[in-house]
Amino acid sequence: MVQSQRLYFIRGKQSELRSDTYESLRNLKTAGNSDASTSGQRVILPSSFTGGSRYTMQNYLDAMCLCRWYGYPDFFLTITCNPGWPEVKRFLKDTNLNSEDGPDILCRIFKMKLDSMIKLLKDKALFGKIKAAVYTIEFQKRGLPHAHICLFIAPENKIHNPSHIDNFISSEIPDKVTEPDLYQLVSDHMLHGPCGEANPSCSCMIDREYSKNFPKRFQNETSIDSNGFPLYKRRDNGRYVVKKDRATISIVQNNTADNEDPQVDEIKAFYDCRYLSACEAAWRIFAFDVHYRVPAVTRLPFHLPGQQQIIYGPEEDIDDVLTKTSNSVSMFTGWMEANRNYEHTWRLSYAEFPTQFVWKKTSPPKWVERQSGFAIGRIHAVPASFDEAYYLRIFLNNVKGPKCFEDIRTVDGIAF
What are φ and ψ of residue 33, in 5° steps? Predict the structure, then answer.
């Protein structure tokens, strides 16, 4: 219901919300038109809506920014909520409830374990000193939450040879006699099946062949393939696990001739392919993070002169919109102004600026020197088809110290 109300609000505001460039409104005023409702494009499903396609894309690009700054992630971890955890059983003891009847309990316990795991990895440096971390929360077919975690390790602790991998990762089945508890955990939670000839209709099978490159071949030592991916040690020691069957479902869109050119409706598309489990509903109501990253990533817009995007209402007077300092000053032009005021900023590119400065939405907005913390800058992505803006974006990742658009023209010969 909460999400439906948010989508209802966005749909109801489609005819009112407007976004346009500062220059376009200035030209509109010059032409003698003071009605802002006649200009601008409609907002469909903004990136501020959690779970939407634009929200997902922006967080993906933020994660890729960490890769640009720190290199490839060193570890990929997954933690999944387990209804058999003793904490869950303790909460449900002396009741007639099953674990699926307490999604709030499952979410709270999973969140505490996830936070504890992240803190343990950072503070205890189990894999080495962590420079950055990012995770995304997803929900299984059964609705249970799980997190995909990427860790970026400091250069001095990175894995430099295959044998070092064996200190952290094992893809072998534990010995049932010497490690019975670990064997039970692996067989219950980490193995998939049955598939192959025993179950050719399994979701991992395509044309009676394995589609996920499993099972992996046996090998006595861990090695790295030509693409840089590890081939884990998996010795033929005779250990095996027998798995029971699991039911699967598949939902596909039915393409018919009547829908050759359907109308684009992002809100309807979001509804049509949306399954909301009880655990996910509880997670969102508790306002737990769906996407987490450390350090923070500051999204940096850029534009040609007078082409910064501004948001305004249909009833606003153009004079009022144009005179707002928040509209006339952008993070991009504010960066140039900061280069006028601080000489030591000349050694920082636009993308590096948030490491030492913070954007304050004062009146007027401006960059101020950072007193604490750390953030990474990410310049908004632009398709290569927009030649001038595309090359300007690439250039801004390296240029340092411009005080105005004229400086950028002088340095790189770009003609706006």
Answer: -105, 120
CA contacts within 13 A on the Cβ side of 88: 21
Sign, CA dihedral 45-46-49-53, equals: positive
Residue 80 three-state SS: strand
Residue partners of 301: CB distance under 8 A and separation at least 6: 308, 309, 330, 331, 332, 380
The answer to whether the beta carbons of residues 157 and 128 sit under 8 Å apart is: yes
Give residues with Cβ within 8 angstroms of 261, minimum separation 6. Answer: none
Cα-Cα-Cα-Cα dihedral of 211, 217, 222, 228, to 10°?
-40
Q: What are phi and psi of 289, to 5 degrees?
A: -65, 130
More confident residue, 313 or 93: 93
> Tell me: the pLDDT tens digits for 139-177?
877 789 999 999 999 999 988 888 888 888 888 889 889
What 3-state class would DSSP assign to 415?
coil
Residue pair 292/145 in contact by the 8 Å Cβ criterion = no
Higher pLDDT, 304 or 329: 329
Closest C-alpha among 167, 173, 175, 202 to residue 186: 173
Angle between helices 405-412 and 387-396 (to 10 degrees): 90
- The model carries a pTM of 0.77
pLDDT tens digit sequence for 268-279:
777 776 778 899
Res. 57: pLDDT tops 70: yes
- Measured CA to CA, the distance from residue 381 to residue 114 in angstroms comes to 31
Distance CA(397)–CA(193), nearest Å, equals 48
- Whole-angstrom CA distances from 332 to 125, 198, 299, 343, 357 are 38, 60, 11, 17, 13
Question: Length of the chain, please?
Answer: 416
- 92, two tokens: 């449900």
Cα–Cα distance, 130 to 201 (Å, whole number): 42
CA–CA separation, 282 and 277 (whole Å): 9
Q: Which helix (H) or strand (E) holds 133?
A: strand 130-139
* Residue 64 backbone zone (phi > 0: left; psi -120 to 50: alpha; other: beta): alpha
Determine the distance from the C-alpha atom of residue 269 to the mean position of all C-alpha atoms in its chain, rounded to a whole number: 20
